[in-house]
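Figure 6 in text form: structure in, sequence out.
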């Protein structure tokens, strides 16, 4: 026998169900908003250049000591990372000329993804020096485009540390932020070289496209600091040649609204042995923007022979 529920009771039941569903939607929405806020905050906080100062030691997951580079057996060691617009570039000056044909340190380029405020993953695709050679072999062996590095991280206002061996790792790289040297300019961002233009007496005579599978030239410019990595493993082919190590560099720059770019290189990777105190050796360029995401850089008035009469076209990496 069917029993009919009173209409008023049905209304009460339906009202409670709707109310319960709305609560679930509200809680879910708040959770998504919080995750979005955390991710956006993380991106803002990690943005910029970071200077490695040492290594944090952990015992049972607790930080017990920080070993500073300046107090180590190699106080001249340098390592810098830059997180900008979803891109990661890093470089060090750790050279091994006995086992490698190139004469400077190593570096890398890739993308990164934030999972939470204490976790991110780097997807390293290209590099210079030993790391560039290693990545080339790794990618070719597994037929992949990058190597994945999950990181357990600790980000504060004045420091950043990362464990590459998971949360139970006993060591973490320790970094401190490098000061921003200038306001944001039109040239700030991450760029990939797409064309090379040769000039004779100020007249362009030849234009060469740059295939990414042969040469990957990536450059980050952010608030007065720059870093670049030129991976040449795809065009050189022979890992026993010095050129296989590519080249990279780090330094400072000034840019004005009239298209004048000045770069002060400090030190390099791969086959770039430059070593200069900050803002002592300058290279001048003239810059012309085709649009917000594409510009031409032409070397001028410089003692650097490889920069004079050379035009490079860069496209923004988004």
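Output sequence:
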């Amino acid at each position: 026998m069917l029993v009919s529920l009173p209409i008023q009771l049905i209304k009460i039941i339906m009202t409670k169900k709707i109310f319960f569903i709305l609560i679930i939607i509200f809680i879910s929405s708040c959770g998504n908003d919080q995750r979005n806020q955390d991710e956006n905050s993380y991106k803002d906080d990690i943005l910029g250049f970071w200077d490695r100062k040492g290594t944090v030691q952990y015992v049972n997951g607790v930080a017990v000591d920080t070993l500073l580079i300046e107090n180590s057996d190699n106080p001249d060691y340098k390592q810098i990372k830059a997180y900008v617009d979803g891109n990661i570039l890093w470089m060090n000056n750790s050279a091994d000329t006995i086992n490698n044909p190139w004469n400077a340190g190593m570096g890398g380029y890739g993308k990164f993804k934030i999972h939470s405020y204490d976790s991110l993953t780097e997807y390293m695709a290209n590099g210079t020096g030993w790391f560039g050679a290693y990545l080339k072999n790794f990618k070719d062996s597994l037929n992949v485009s990058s190597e994945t590095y999950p990181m357990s991280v600790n980000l504060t206002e004045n420091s950043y540390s990362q464990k590459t061996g998971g949360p139970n790792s006993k060591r973490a790289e320790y970094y401190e932020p490098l000061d921003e040297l200038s306001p944001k300019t039109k040239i700030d961002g991450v760029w990939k070289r797409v064309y090379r233009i040769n000039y004779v007496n100020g007249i362009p005579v030849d234009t060469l496209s740059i295939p990414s599978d042969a040469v990957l030239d990536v450059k980050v410019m952010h608030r007065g600091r720059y870093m670049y990595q030129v991976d040449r493993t795809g065009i050189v082919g022979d890992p026993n040649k010095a050129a296989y190590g590519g080249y990279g560099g780090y330094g400072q720059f000034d840019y004005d609204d009239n298209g004048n770019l000045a770069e002060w290189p400090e030190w390099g990777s791969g086959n770039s042995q430059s070593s200069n105190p900050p803002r002592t050796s300058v290279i001048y360029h003239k810059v012309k923007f085709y649009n917000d995401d594409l510009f031409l850089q032409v070397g001028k008035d410089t003692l650097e022979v490889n920069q004079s009469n050379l035009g490079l076209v860069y496209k923004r990496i988004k």
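Caption detail: Confidence is low (pLDDT under 50) at residues 1-5, 9-37.
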